[in-house]
Amino acid sequence: MHRPKLNRAPDDADLAKVISQGIQPEMPGAWQLSPREVKSLVAYVRTLGSIPLEPLPGDPARGESLFKTKGCGACHMIRGQGSGYGPELTDIGSKRSAAFLRESLVAPEAVVPDDFVMVELVTASGTTIRGVRMNEDTFSIQIKEASGELHSYRKSVLKDLRKLRGKSPMPSYEGALKADEMNDLIAYLASLRGNS
Amino acid sequence: MKRSLLFLLATLATAQVRYERIANADSEPGNWLTYSRNLLGHRYSPLDQITPANVAGLKVKWAYQFPDTRNEVSPIVADGVMYITGPNSAAALDIHTGRPFWKWKRPVPSDYQSIGFGRVNRGPAILDDKLFVATLDCELVALDIKSGQERWSTKVADYKPGYSLTLAPLAIPGKVVVGVSGGEAGIRGFVDAYDAQTGKRAWRFWTIPGPGEPGHESWSGDAWKTGGGSTWVTGSYDPQLNLVYWGVGNPGPDWNGDDRPGDNLYTCSLVALDGSTGALRWHFQFTPHDTHDWDATHVPVLFEGEVRGRKRKLIGVANRNAFYYALDRETGEFVAGRAYAKQTWANGLDDRGRPMVVPGNEPSEEGKLVWPNLNGATVWFSPSYSPRTGLFYVAVREVGATYFKREAEFKPGTFFAGGGEQTLPSEDEWGAIRALEATTGRIEWEFRLKSAPWAGVLSTGGGLVFGGTNEGNFFALDAKSGKALWDFQTGGQVAANPIAFNIDGREHIAVSANRVLYVFGL
Predict the structure, then answer these.
(1) Which residues of B touch A36 (CB under 8 A)?
(2) Which residues of B are less than 8 Å from A117 in CB distance?
(3) Average pLDDT for residues B112-122, to the nearest whole number?
(4) pLDDT in the model for residue B4
(5) What DSSP letter does each residue of B50-63 carry, written as one string?
(6) Under an 8 Å CB criterion, which residues of B touch A?
(7) Structure confidence by residue, pLDDT tens digits, A33-74
(8) Would you call A139 and B117 a contact, using CB atoms and an 8 Å cutoff?
(9) Strand B458-460 vs strand B44-45: parallel, antiparallel, or unpaired?
(10) Confidence of residue A195 (pLDDT cuts 50, 70, 90)
């Protein structure tokens, strides 16, 4: 049985808490719902399931080989192998459709989530650092470079801080992969359903 | 013998928080005896040991962990004891160590529901030998300040249709004033005063006038019966005028005004009530016929200001609808007003302070994008007024939302809202602390925050403004320039109002951040 993987709600009690209390500050709590209504909503969310397996034209085994040879692991981790710069892909096939995966490979910046922000900053000593924002508050910002190096800066000491919203460090693979290879890679990614 | 009698008398004297002590708060700046420190709603402390020159040395002195998350309490400090509350709970803490002298808790009934708000409590009130706590299930409880044991408990309303109490009560001479939450449940709101000694109700002011009462004509049919008008934020009090000033919430249903044509008095208004009888002296409506959930539930700030060469008793309100207003607090006359945050629903205010509404900004089936969002340009958390700078400090939310209208069917004890909103992506929202010239609302300076805040501000005689962020920062700004001078990462969302008080004659600052109360000192 496929169940959606909800990072903030591994079990029903946590999901009920997320629904009734929200996720501050971006998601308001559904305070209007009674405990009984929240319970019903939890049950409904659990029925939504994951992305079903769909017949795809590519060969997952060839796709896995391409993943390794085309350098995808330099940014992405699967079952503990690779780099953690980009999103973890161990169960990407249960979370994203084949169409979404194709768009991610062809036009990565078309599918950048709202809370994913690339940052370019200039330190007090004049060094330019570019990376992915890991966290931020009014006074500080935490980023990760492609090398995996983590940085935290007081904003007040930076010479410049630019947020590159809508930008992705991932290149487009359109043209870099033949049509068959693209199908193979998508078939491989769609087959990734977690560790089990 | 004589000496020990004197000592006993002195002890008894300090064990009682007489009304005169609250009314003369400035004579004992080391205490914090009412929600906003003074009855005028200033949330300003005259304490001046912590200054722009030394605030960088502020450190945590102690911390207290609440049993629950999301604490919004503004503590009371009296005679070496800090009194705090949570939902249906209270405690008295030693101000030197944070260790509790006593704790009090009352179970929340299993069938209680918070319809349209969080399970929070924003603080206690103190008067004579009693601490007053308002509970989620609508009890006003008087606790003995020495033991935490109940002196009396009075049922303010039935919680089952959606009434609730989340606010800090306000102590005025001989009485304790409370207001209700529940504006999203089709309640009929009111402001109540109770005899502080007995718990007997002294007066009630219904915020939605009934048949035959002035203002009833601003409703249609039976819409007044479910008209909302909650009163969930603590008001202010002018001892000379004996007037209680209280903000009134939105009309119901929130986002669908089809069945309630008219101005819907006294929703989204400020009302001035006689402290002895509860009789309405005047009202001022900020948002007639509101359809965006812009409650006028704010702490009213009373101050003296010069208007066209004449000294006047004024009242300042930074409203959820994104306009700042200065009113004459004797008459309710509009004196000045202007937008203090982004808004797209009105072309300003006319010469009587009524908004010149831009047509077409009502919620709709397909959705209409409007600034500010339903939580407003500011909301329940307190502003601060410094008599030293003459500035009105306010935490501002810059958030737009698409408002939707839906059918609304009234069933007691359920959500009666008629729609909702979808806010813009979180990266498009931001916040600020703004300093407004109090008599005009002109923006003097701004300090930007990463996201739209949920915490109030405190200004001090030392020339500082303290505030907090969703991301856990607690910070101090220069009150004159807005320059950031100190900040501390608390580890939890700051969604509370800070206070200042003395420990052994030394100034300290306290604020809650999620489930921890921090006390800072030099």
Answers:
(1) none
(2) 427
(3) 92
(4) 53
(5) S-TTTGGG-EEEEE
(6) 70, 113-118, 184, 414-415, 417, 425-427, 448-452, 454, 469-473, 475, 484, 487, 489, 493
(7) 667 778 888 888 877 766 777 888 999 999 999 999 999 999
(8) no
(9) parallel
(10) confident
pLDDT at B220 over 70: yes
Nearest Cα residue to B488 out of B88, B161, B56:
B56
Identify which of B231, B164, B151, B137 has the alpha carbon closest to the alpha carbon of residue B193. Answer: B231
- Collapsing DSSP to helix, strand or coil, A144 comes out as strand
- Find the range with the poorest average confidence among A5-19, A173-187, B285-299, B400-414: A5-19
Distance from CA of A164 to the nearest CA of B (A): 12
**Cα(B281)–Cα(B322) distance, integer angstroms:** 26
Residues 6+ apart with CB under 8 A from A178: none
pLDDT band, residue A7 (cuts 50/70/90): low
Name the β-bridge partners of B81: B78, B94
| Reported pTM | 0.91
Burial class (CB in 10 A: 0-12, 13-18, 19+), A175: exposed
* HSE, side-chain direction, 13 A CA sphere, residue B358: 12
Q: How far is A108 from chain B (nearest CA, A)?
A: 19
3-class state of residue B9 by DSSP: helix
Q: Give the active site residue among B26, B293, B351, B428.
A: B293
Using the beta-carbon criterion (under 8 Å), do A115 and B426 form an inter-chain contact? Answer: yes
Per the DSSP assignment, residues forming a β-bridge with B325 are: B317, B337
Q: Write out chain B residues lying below 8 Å of A138, CB-based.
A: 448-450, 469, 471, 473, 475, 487
Give which of B119, B120, B427 to mutate to test A binding, by max A Cβ within 10 Å: B427
CA–CA distance, B241 with B390 (Å, rounded to integer): 22
Tokens representing B434 are: 């703004």
Cα–Cα dist B46/B56, whole Å: 19
Task: Determine whether B302 is exposed, middle or buried from the number of CB atoms within 10 Å of its CB (0-12, 13-18, 19+).
Answer: buried
Kindly report the length of chain B.
522
Burial class (CB in 10 A: 0-12, 13-18, 19+), A157: exposed
CB contact under 8 A, B70 and A21: yes
Q: How far is CA B104 from the centre of its chain?
A: 23
For residue B193, pLDDT over 50 is answered with yes
With CA atoms as reference, report the closest residue to B81 among B91, B73, B71. B91
- Gyration radius from chain A CA atoms: 20
> Which backbone phi and psi does A93 adopt, to 5 degrees?
-70, -25
Residue A8 is predicted with a pLDDT of: 75
Chain B: residue nearest A117 by CA? B427
Q: Which of residues 33-92 of A touch B (CB under 8 A)?
A: 33-34
| Cα–Cα dist B14/B128, whole Å | 10
What letter represents residue B235's amino acid? G
Q: How far apart are CA B221 and CA B326, in angstroms?
A: 34
- Residue B429 distance to chain A (closest CA, Å): 10
CA distances from B435 to B296, B349, B479, B482 (A): 20, 20, 8, 8
Instruction: Quickly count: other Cβ atoms within 10 Å of residue B60's Cβ.
Output: 12
In this complex, is the C-beta atom of A126 within 8 Å of any C-beta atom belonging to chain B?
A: no
ipTM of the assembly? Answer: 0.91
What is the Cα–Cα distance from B36 to B376, expressed in whole angstroms?
Answer: 21
pLDDT at A113: 82
The answer to whether B118 contacts A31, with C-beta atoms less than 8 Å apart, is yes
Q: A60 phi and psi, to 5 degrees?
A: -60, -35
Q: What are phi and psi of B469, to 5 degrees?
A: -125, 165
